[in-house]
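Consider the following assembly input.
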Amino acid sequence: MRYELFYWPGIQGRGEFIRLPFEEAGADYVDVGRGKDGVDAILKVLAGNLGGTRPYAPPVLKAGKVVVAQTALILHHVGADLGLAPKDDAGRRALHQHQLVVMDFLKEVHDTHHPTSSLYYEDQKAEAKRVATQFRKDRMPKYLGFFEELLGKRKFIVGNKVTYLDLSLFQCVAGMRYAFPKTMKKHEKKIPGLVALHDRIAERPRIAKYLASERRLPFGENGLFRHYPELDS
Amino acid sequence: MRYELFYWPGIQGRGEFIRLPFEEAGADYVDVGRGKDGVDAILKVLAGNLGGTRPYAPPVLKAGKVVVAQTALILHHVGADLGLAPKDDAGRRALHQHQLVVMDFLKEVHDTHHPTSSLYYEDQKAEAKRVATQFRKDRMPKYLGFFEELLGKRKFIVGNKVTYLDLSLFQCVAGMRYAFPKTMKKHEKKIPGLVALHDRIAERPRIAKYLASERRLPFGENGLFRHYPELDS
C-alpha cells in the first residue's frame, strides 16, 4: 500500500514521528506536503476533501481508504501493519498509552518557545523564558525519567522488538539535544538507557540511511524543537 | 463489571470526562480517589502497583484485568462496552480522533491559568493573562468552531446515538461558561449547535440526576476550568 502523509513542508515537527516508522519499515509513502502544491493539498485535506473523519490539524495520513489524523492515533493505526507494534490488543494499547505521554511531552516542548501558539516567539520571549526554565527543572526530568524507568536495562520500551515508540523516543532525545544542548549535556547521565536507545536507533540501517538523506529535514527554528540559547541553561 | 477510577479527589479535572460516561451508562464504578486513603491509593497506582501498563498520570482506570491511563484512551477502551461508542473499528477510530482534539483543547484551557504547570497561578499571572487573551481570541473559537461545524444540524457529533464525545463537549461548554462567562456570553451565538447539545445532554435523565447529586463536584479554582475574572474579557 502507498501511504500518503500530509504534513507542513520544511519542518520535522510532529510529521517526523510518522516519517521515522515509515523509513524504518521501508514503507512506500509519499510526503505530499513536500511535493508540488503541497500546502494547497494539505489545506484541502483540512477542509475535508478526502472524506472520512475530519482532521483538525496535520499530520494526516491516507492509508488505503482510511483517513486518520492525530500523530499518536496514526501510529496506533499503522503500527502493527508496519511491523512496529505488537498485533494483540493489550500490546497495541500499551504502546498507544505511552505514545500519548510522548505527545504530552512534545506539547510541553512546544510551549517552551510558544506559551501561546498565536504569537511569534519574538513577541513572547519573557513568557517563554519562564516556561522553559520550569520545563528544564521539573517537566523534562519527569517525562524523560518516566521513560528511563520504563526502559530499565532492556533494549526496547515495550516487548523485545523495535516499535514506533522507540523511534519516537529517539526523536525526543535528538530534538532535546538540538534545542537544549547545555541542559542535555548535564542531564544525559541521568538517562543512560534513553541515550543508548537513541544511539541504537540511529545505527539501524534504514534509519541511518534516512538520517543521511535529503528526506531528513534539519532541525530548525520553525519546528517543534527549537534552539534559542536564552532558553537553555 | 465494577470499574475503579483513580483520580485526584476534590476536582472535576480530566476525571470528569470519565465520570460522565459512567453516569450516563449507569455503570458500576468506584471513584477510588474520593474514598478513604484515596490519594495514597492513587500514588500506589502511579508507582505501578496494579501491574500492567505503567500510567504516567491520573486518570487511571482498572477495568477487570486491564489497567489503562490517558483520558482519551480510557474512553476509547470502555466506550463501546458502555454503549457510548460505535462497535466497529472505523467508528471507534473516528470518535477517538475527535476526542484527542478535545484533549488538546483541554490542555490549552489549562495553560490559560498555568502556562507552566510547575508554578502557582499567583506566580505567573502576567504570563497567564497573555496566554488567556490569545486563547479567547484565536484558540477557543478555532476549537469550538471545529466541533460546531462537525455537528452541523445533527443531534450527535458522530452517528445517531449519544457517545462519550458528546458528553465531553457538554463538559467543555459547561466548563467554558464557568471559566470565561463574559467571553462565552458573546461567543455562544456562534456555536448554537454546541450550546443546544450541552442543553440536551444536561437533560438526559441519568446526567440530570448526576449533576444534582453530591457525586458531581463543583467547578473551582483547583480544577481544569478556573474562573479568574482577570483572564476573562
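Chain B touches chain A through 41 residues (CB under 8 Å). Ask yourself how this observation constrains the way the partners meet.
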